[in-house]
């Protein structure tokens, strides 16, 4: 006969020890026979994600999270066998892995290929490109965190760079010497100029340099920095030393910008970011700075109506009821006027533009501003990140991470070899354009790129258009390729968005923002 249920307890309730006997038996130690028998009866978890699939024994069956049923997808039309751009690149099968090279791009492992295939299988990863091809794609001032190039031609030329080719690529970057590649390279793997130019396009400069900390992006990076070693967090003397070194680097970049030896640079803080591009084409050393994701206190906007506090209540005096109606105080009036401005804090609408001589004032403000550095959290005491395409005082040379993935995709009548090149890191605007200049000849004028932008930096595309004048004469010594200068001097057309899909066919571009 079954024992009656205790009051206040469910008949099917099990004690937690009966469900949580998942500890593995350590070798060399004796364990309780009853516990060992219970552990043996409990099936061992399979795979690394078994812990994530365990149900909380204290949660009821009704409130357990349920996975939404996948919506049925209509069968897609099969692409033509001879059209590589229509092939479903995300359906990777039979991945071909290679050994890790000593330089250049790294071949991905099978687990990385599976992750890439799941990422590319998302419907948002492959939007439809416009049907109007052009010789050049518009300037995009957002910083990309990841770019995935795909092509029917292999990217093996980007792997296993020789030591001499890697050194030559660094030398070309430091000496600002570009390479003119032919329209099409028949044997990319044997072309030393192509491989050196690829290495050159991966170089950027960073300050400060802390290898154990992710210094980009800084907005919303507290979770990634949590638990990292930060010896300066409680040391004011160390914080002052870091800030003093950062001020020297920041001033160096500003001076390079004024001398037209640097086309632009980024200041990435914990609460806002700054883009400082030179006024392309202007003969005078006039510059502009754009700050995005800032608060009202940093914007310091002045409304034209600030001086008129009582004008809106003059009608009360005309009606003779000014003594009976309580007028709001000055603080309430100011809060009412700033209500709309506060609503756009840390949004793309909070973009601030500073031009001309005011840029020097903003420079001094950033150096002396207390809110430039976080006072609490994982980023406390850490100066902002400086990103530049050229060398500057205190900057450290860094390279973007690149790796190749090869596999097979389904096409009509069988399978087709597909190849991809993934680039990770803070991909600056000039680096993206320089990579396209290298990939065009290497991939015979046909490739597709999926771009993952740093979303807050997309607001920089809403800036004003630079003057349309001779750019190469002004910035001939800034270290960028002449075609890249022409591309960055185009009138902005992306608004608050950024390019997410870039495709080249027959050496012409189409894109989708």
TrEMBL record:
A GO cellular component entry from the record: nucleus
Keyword Nucleus attached: yes
Bias (Low complexity): 33-51, 78-87
Protein family according to the UniProt entry: Belongs to the DONSON family.
Subcellular location: Nucleus
Keywords: Developmental protein, Nucleus
Main location group: nucleus
Region entry Disordered, spans: 1-87
Protein name: DONS protein
Organism: Pomatorhinus ruficollis
Record GO biological process: nuclear DNA replication
